[in-house]
Amino acid sequence: MQNLLNRHTDEVGITTLTLSQPERRNSLSFSMLDALGESLTDIAEDSATRVVVIAAEGKVFCAGHDLKEIRDQLDSYDFQLALFKRCSEVMQQVVNLQKPVIARVAGVATAAGCQLVASCDLAVAESSARFATPGVNIGLFCSTPMVALSRNVSRKHAMEMLLTGEMISAARAEQIGLVNRVVDETLLDDTVYGMARTIAQKSGHTVKIGKGAFYKQLEMPLAGAYDYTAEVMAENLRAHDAQEGICAFLDKRKPEWKDS
C-alpha cells in the first residue's frame, strides 16, 4: 500500500491520504481502489482522525481508471463489473465516512478522478486545476462518475460535462459547484489545512451527526426531510457536546468537547 497511497495524521487529527503513483497519473486501478478503501475503513475506526484530506503527488490529481488495466481485461465482463463496483463502494465510503473529507486538487481530475472530487464533502483546487468526464470521447460513457457529479452540480451542467467530454477550468468548476474554492497554488495547502483545522476544532460527535443527516435528507421529499431533521436535532440536543456548546455560548466561554 505504501507505494500506492501514503497516510499521515498530524497533531490536530487531520489525516492526509496521498495518491502516490504520479507515473501512472494516480489512476484508480483495482489495487489503488483497494488501498484507498482499506485506509478509509481504518480511518472510520480511528478516534485520532477528525478530518480527512485526499491529495495526490505529481501534476495529475487522478486520471480515473487505469485504461491499460481495462484494456488487458477487455474480454472479462466479470473483471470490468467488479472494478466499477469496487470503485462505487469506495466512493460511497467517502460519503458515508462519519468524518469530513476534503479533496486537495492540484492538476487534472478526470473521469473517476473527477468522481472522487465530487464524492468528497469539500474540495479546494489550485487555479490551474482542470476537470473532465471524458469517457464519451473514447466510447465509454462516464456512467458511474455521473452519479457523484449529478449530485453536486445542476443537471444541465452535469450533462454538458458528460456529453461533451471537454475539460473545464478550476474557475468554471467553482462556478458550477464542483469545488468550494479556487486559490493560487502557493495558497493551496494553507487553504485546505486551514479549513481542515477549523473543522477539527468542532465537536466530532456533532460533525458526525451533521454529515450523516445532510446526505440522508437530500434523498427525501421536503416534508420527510423536515420530519427527519427535527428528530435529528432533538436527539442531538441530548448529547453532552450540544448542551455544553449552548451553555458555553451563553456563558461567553470556550466549550470543552467530549465528542459525545
Task: Please provide the ordered H/E string of secondary-structure elements.
Answer: EEHEEHHEEHEEHHEHEHHHH
What is the straight-line distance between the termini? 33 Å
CATH homologous superfamily classification of the largest domain: 2-enoyl-CoA Hydratase, Chain A, domain 1
Number of strands: 10
- Tell me the helix content: 40-55%
If classified by CATH, what would the architecture of the largest domain be? Alpha-Beta Complex
Number of self-contained structural domains: 2
Structural class: alpha/beta
| CATH fold label of the largest domain | 2-enoyl-CoA Hydratase, Chain A, domain 1
The number of helical segments is: 11
InterPro entries: Enoyl-CoA_hydra/iso, Mitochondrial_ECH-domain
Pfam families: ECH_1 (PF00378)
Keywords: Fatty acid metabolism, Lipid metabolism, Lyase
Enzyme class: lyase
